[in-house]
Fold these 3 entries.
Entry 1:
Amino acid sequence: MCEKLTSNLKDTEAHKVYLARVGGKVTEAKFTVNKKIKCLSKKLSKYDTCDDSDPDGKESITDFELVNYNEKNDTSLLKCSIIRLSENRQNPSNSSSSEVSGLSDPK
């Protein structure tokens, strides 16, 4: 197993997957967002979508899949896979913030 992981990393076949909890009920089981994202807080690993004209935004395509909806808390748990980022860009860390996907207003 260790050899396969090492080989995958060398061949860049490894994919990062993140979980995000967002406010409200997400009705689509799977969807893709092709929108710029920017860092709101490096310390808290919070990211949000932004306008194409925002100079701080980085190109990103993210696949989302609904994992669970919590009716009591009115939150949805999403699996997020960033499938393309602009050059010189780091993937955001795991986060439970709604800002990861920009799907709901955190206010």
Entry 2:
Amino acid sequence: MTKSKPLERIAEDKFVQWCKDQGWECLKLRIDGENGFPDRTVITPHCVIFVEFKREGEKLRPRQAVWMERLSTDLGQWYLTATDFDWVKEQTAAIVKSCKEGTQG
């Protein structure tokens, strides 16, 4: 019997492939001794975007909230998503477009 992937993992896998299709890096970074760093760091020619995938109704853990505050500066954009791949794709595309136009980051 095959164990199914958690729903947020399915959205994350689709998101990673979409980022690759755009020519962007979509990294899963780990920091030794630290918890809560975002699930994905997207590097585009115009900006860096930090993405945390959550199931609908889940809240940030305390260390995730700390990282969100640290990274919600000029370093990049932060946003949450439930299992909705289309939403995160649209938000990412909008952020990159505004970075290209020089209206953000």
Entry 3:
Amino acid sequence: MNPKSTGKQVGQIADRLLQNLATLSSQEPTEPKDKPQPLSPDDARSSMPKIERRKPLATPWQRKWLDMEVTHPDLQVAADATAKFCGRWFRNEPWKRLLVLYGETGCGKTHIAQRVSGWAQACAFQRFLEQRSSTAVSVPSVIFQSFAEAADPEQMGADEFRNWMRDINEASMLVLDDIGAETDRFKSGIPTSRLCEVLNRRAGKFTLLTTNVEPSKWREMWDARAEDRLNRDSLVIEMKTPSFTNFS
């Protein structure tokens, strides 16, 4: 059972019992005629309002590959969008090849990104095994990368960044995690420039991005070029779930 829901129920029962206690304390003391009966679990449950909600991760694919324990209805929106994105990648469909998941820290964006990357790598390898005797000559590349590392010249120098750009240009899928978490201590503009380079290189190619920067602040965070590319033929999904570490 959801600990948060259980705590709420217990609190409601406690409030009711305290009200009864206050009423009794204001009356003249009398001899009890009947022994008080404890509140049964069934009575407690029936007294609580019922909240109808869809259970997140409704499909076997979502439960197996996303594997999130957050029981929150808004998670289903992100799970459905992610499943459809992966389906388009698998079938090589030509639309909505950029998926952006945004939400508060801890809501599960990176978890989904990592799981999608793992699924896509396993799927690409399986497809290679099935086709290696005919058309496939190598395993399709699936790349997972933290943008904070790729945007920092101290962590990824210019030569290494150019090599990485060649790799992502050929990748079947790029999963770029946590754009907006990068820092630009010297106001060099390098992180924004690198993000625009990535988005230009990945135009029309399957790319999954996660960020805690909401769309209305993209231009302020980066610039108009980045905002335009993030909105171009993309699907932007807000994850409204509470912190994954505090809600289960």
